[in-house]
Amino acid sequence: MAIPQPPGPLARFLAGQPAVVRGYAQQPLAGDDTARLSGPACANSKGAPAKQFVNFCCQSLIGSDAGVEVMKLLILQQAEQQTLRDMGVFHPHPRVRIRAQAIVRLSQRLTLQQTANEFHVHLNSIEAWRQRWNKQGLMGLYEGHHTGRKRKWTDQQQEALRALAQADGGSANSLLRTLAQTEGLPAISQETARRYLHEMQFSYKRYRYSLKKSIHRKLSARPHE
């Protein structure tokens, strides 16, 4: 007999169900909490309160079960909620989908720790996504520019490699052996040296033996008739 599995994060995200953590489900908003959302900024053009969601608190990082610290309200307009729901399902980038889903789950009164557990990420990642959403909006959900690791050789050191290759030539290994005599030069691999040379428009040409000489040898080796 198959045991039914609990719904995953995406299923709960689409259904808008509250998360269950440690056997306790999230409770609905109290009357005084709902009154906080009935101001002029929360009403639509017809005067009726718009659909909005709020996250009131997150569990303290100190570790005490009773320690709960109040955080700023995360309120989503109806258009923002619909846009995030569409991005959470149809966006081609998986990380953007997860971030959009996490923002929606935070707006449904989940704490940072509950959202981190649901999406199997670190608590600091959820907090970073929330801050980027508050500052940048939808643009905060996208990937930033990754510069990668800094190059081991400076521009002057790469220029020395270019000058040596232009003057003496040779393979990348022979150029590295010559430059190894320079003090204070970081060691790099042959692949890195080849990449530097390739970026400088250098190309390594292999010798290609002509077939004419071998054919001439075969013809000269034949006995005369």
Question: Total helix count?
Answer: 10
Task: Name the shape in a single word.
Answer: elongated
User: How large is the share of residues in beta strands?
Assistant: under 5%
Helical content band: 40-55%
Give me the count of strands: 4
The CA-CA distance between the termini, in Å, is 90 Å
Can you list the strand order of the major beta sheet? 1-2
What series of H and E elements makes up the topology? HEEHEEHHHHHHHH
Helix-strand category: mainly alpha
Oligomerization status of the protein chains: single chain
Task: Please outline the major beta sheet.
Answer: 2 strands, antiparallel
Average predicted confidence as pLDDT: 71
* Rg for CA atoms: 32 Å
Low-confidence stretches: 18-70
Protein model, in words:
46% of the residues lie in helices and 4% in strands. With 225 residues, it is mainly alpha-helical. Among the domains are: 36-141, no CATH class; 155-199. The strands form two sheets. A two-stranded antiparallel sheet has the order 1-2. A two-stranded antiparallel ribbon has the order 3-4. Helix 5 (112-119) packs across helix 6 (123-136). The model is unreliable at 18-70 (pLDDT under 50).
